[in-house]
Structures are given as structure tokens and as C-alpha cells.
Amino acid sequence: MERQSRAFYIVRSNTNPIVGLKTCKDLELIKLILNIQKEGGTTSAYSKLVKEYKDTFEGIGNLENKCEIHLKENAVPTV
């Protein structure tokens, strides 16, 4: 991996983030996936699932119990 450096300024202010999309991409902190593929039959399967569990897919969701999300140690974030 190529070494890169960036200048950062620390400020006490409620402003926009200093690490923007371009810097995140340049530093390989995120990976953009710019394609969409449709698999055969998924639309009908999706519609059937939403219809069967209609109350689950309406309104604002709320998890009743405490939840934890565990990621693999080598997980790579994507946007």
C-alpha cells in the first residue's frame, strides 16, 4: 500500500467533519461499490416476505432488548 499523509487541524467547534469522502477513499478507509445487480426472482420473494410480515416493515422500528453487533476482527467497512 502506498504511503500517504494529510494535514489535520483540531478545532473546538460544531462544524462539518474534516475527513471527507475524497480523503476516506484516498486513504482506503472506505470502498465504494457502484453497481447494482438484480437476481432473478428476488422481487417476488421480497414482496411475499413484506406481505407476510407487514407489521414488521411499517413505522419506526424499536428493538426491545439490548443488542450488540459483533464484527469479525478483519471486517472491512463499505459504504
What topology does this entry show?
Elements: H1 21-26, H2 42-52
Structural overview:
Helices cover about 20% and strands about 0% of the residues. The protein has a domain at about 1-35. With about 80 residues, it is an all-alpha fold.
β-strand number: 0
Instruction: Measure the end-to-end span.
Output: 21 Å
% residues in beta strands: under 5%
**Average pLDDT taken over every residue:** 76
User: What is the global morphology?
Assistant: extended
SSE pattern, N- to C-terminal: HH
Number of helices: 2
Structural class: mainly alpha
Radius of gyration: 20 Å
Low-pLDDT parts are: none
- Largest sheet entry: none
Name the helicity range: 10-25%
Features:
79 residues, 22% helix, 0% strand, extended
In short:
This protein is mainly alpha-helical and 79 residues long. It contains two helices and no strands. The protein is extended, with a radius of gyration of 20 Å.
